[in-house]
Amino acid sequence: MEFVSATDGVKPSRRDQILDAAAELFARHGFHGVGIDDIGAAVGISGPALYRHFKSKDAMLGEMLTSISERLLDGGQGRVTAAENPESALQALIGWHVDFALDDPALITVQSRNLANLTDEDRRRVRALQRRYVEVWVDTIRRTTPTVDEPTARAAAHAVFGLINSTPHSAHLDRTQMATLLRTMSEAALTGVTAPVPYP
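Below the sequence we write its predicted structure tokens.
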């Protein structure tokens, strides 16, 4: 897991290395179970040396979760824009989120568990980014299936996020098999979505 993409040929900065290490530790032990010294030891520096890069552990978490949300939003928007039609846009969105979840399971875990640990300002920023990302999905689902209303599309998007984001706990297949399974299940769920009808 790297905050700097491995495909761009750029070596991760010290800040990126610290965030990578912190994400792994937060995912394994929880935000409150990890100290500055633990993070420093993971990257080969003293705990107090981290303050050259981040003013606090809270600031580190804020940058981490903001970065996650920005990456998801930018990646989702880019794939939808590049798609030739709504169906391929939906497939691209699903593939993007599946790849993110499988390649960065620590980030997925930290994101799901630690929103409450953010400062109020960081929480508002992350929430705003997350809402924009959800709306990319809602719009794409409704363009794929125009008969689906907005609340149903939003509920369906969140349900699929839950499916895909479960991978830190459910990845019992190899990377390729798991990606195929998640994409197949997500596409089946979203292309077949209709307004819910109460059970008799």
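The domain at 57-191 is CATH 1.10.357.10 (Tetracycline Repressor; domain 2).
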